Amino acid sequence: MTAVPRALPSADRCLVMGVVNVTPDSFSDGGLWYDASAAIKHGRELVAQGADIVDVGGESTRPGAQRIDAEEELRRVIPVIRELARAGIVVSVDTMRAQVAEAALEAGAILVNDVSGGLADPYMPRLVARARAPYVVMHWRGPSRDMNSRAVYANVVREVRAELAQRIDAVTAEGVDPSLIVLDLGLGFSKMPDVTGPNAHNWQLLAHLREVAHIGGQDFPVLVGASRKRHLGRLLAAPDGSPRPFTEADDATVAVTALAAAAGAWCVRVHRVPANADAVRVAAAWRAATVNP
Ligand code: PMM
User: Fold this and answer.
1) How far is the CA of 142 from the centre of ligand 1 (A)?
2) What is the value of pTM for the model shown?
3) Number of domains present in the structure of the chain
4) Which domain holds residue 227?
5) Is residue 2 situated within a structural domain?
6) What's the per-residue H, E or C state across the chain?
7) CATH code at position 261
8) Which amino acid residue places its CA nearest to atom 1 of ligand 1?
9) What residues line ligand 1, using a CB cutoff of 6 Å?
10) In the list 89, 147, 172, 217, which could disulfide-bond 190, CB 3.0-4.6 Å?
11) How does pLDDT run across 11-59, given as a tens digit for each residue?
């Protein structure tokens, strides 16, 4: 593969990454964009609505999900990535496989979003290093099928930070340029959805996102993937305790986006773009006025 020097996408505000799950079974939008032409149309729509990046994934990571094989993953994502990239759209590929990342970069993706942070496929960091691609390293403790059993922390902020620091060491040892690394808190991945108390893992990480990403004296850019996740459904539960369905958690996602962007997040990964695109602009104005009163 040709090594193209790439830079991290950036703007004077938090970026918005719109999600296109080319899957029959993703948590919140499984089946909607399973057909390539529907996925391409949706990707274009997300950009028209204000997305800076379109994240294309072919494998569901919902709790309990089983893995699909590489051929099926390639079949799902490559035609979609090729077409969106051809239209000039900044595309990221959501994959844990080096083989899929390599084909996606060749098809025009510019960023590799690896929810396993290089743990699922030992070849991934080297591939990313050779391609000089921006690399999202998410906090991950193991496959989705049994991730809830790994959601055990004495201090979630300290432990996630330490585990991300280990991943940074591991991937940079394979040649990944630290200036192309984005960290992700891994919301919902081996994290309990509690609203308060010691198991409010997602909320504790969100409230300390800058601290989690301050590693080795460097402030790494942070990607926040809170959209429609279980901790929002739990927060917004009905009086009888039944969680709010994920399709009715988009307003809460926007609230998280505003707070995360105001706290300095680099990017938010969201399913519904328009209100989130507004929220990052609100946060940018808020931050600018804080810096220049
Ligand atoms: N969440 C999902 C999939 N990919 N990638 C990153 N970097 N961060 C996330 O939090 C994340 C991700 C699962 O959500 P979905 O199936 O609803 O898209």
Assistant:
1) 14
2) 0.96
3) 1
4) 15-291
5) no
6) CCCCCCCCCCCCCCEEEEEEECCCCCCCCCCCCCCHHHHHHHHHHHHHCCCCEEEEECCCCCCCCCCCCHHHHHHHHHHHHHHHHHCCCCEEEECCCHHHHHHHHHCCCCEEEECCCCCCCCCHHHHHHHHCCCEEEECCCCCHHHHHHHCCCCCHHHHHHHHHHHHHHHHHHCCCCHHHEEEECCCCCCCCCCCCCCCCHHHHHHHCHHHHCEECCEECCEEECCCCCHHHHHHCCCCCCCCCCHHHCHHHHHHHHHHHHHCCCCEEEECCHHHHHHHHHHHHHHHHHHHCC
7) 3.20.20.20
8) 225
9) 19, 21, 26-28, 61-62, 94, 113, 115, 136, 138, 184, 187, 223, 225, 228, 269
10) 147
11) 999 999 999 999 887 666 667 777 899 999 999 999 999 999 999 999 9
